[in-house]
Amino acid sequence: xxxxxxxxxxxxxxxxxxxxxxxxxxxxxxxxxxxxxxxxxxxxxxxxxxxxxxxxxxxxxxxxxxxxxxxxxxxxxxxxxxxxxxxxxxxxxxxxxxxxxxxxxxxxxxxxxxxxxxxxxxxxxxxxxxxxxxxxxxxxxxxxxxxxxxxxxxxxxxxxxx
Length: 162
Fold this sequence. Notes:
Elements (H helix, E strand, L loop, with lengths): L13 E6 L3 H11 L5 H5 L4 H11 L5 E7 H4 L9 E7 L1 H8 L11 E7 L5 E6 L1 H6 L4 H22 L1
Antiparallel strand pairs: 1-5, 2-3, 3-4, 4-5
């Protein structure tokens, strides 16, 4: 049994993507490209292959939304009046390929994304680069999935800025 505590320093890179739409349109576009996960439907799957097949259908661009929080109403009455929505976006069938090697990867899966209006009134999407997060686990199998997630994220960003 391991009884010591460790700390892992790791680099991260926050990507801040300018989106061409206004906030409301960008939010609608993001949510259409990253559909909400139906966990009850996944729970009914009788095999892992059926789960993989369902994920292919439900995540047309590789990602599903596991959580959404509209931050704006929570800040009502404060001097901070930004339009902001926070998401957890990922794909548990992809995460499983890391989870089997180290369950602590779930600290970074699903990915946290934030859609917001900046001080100039421009809409931005921000997310930490997945490969840097998952490379910090020191296992090549996990790092490879992180690089794959970079590619999926790049594809999603391309669709968002089109």
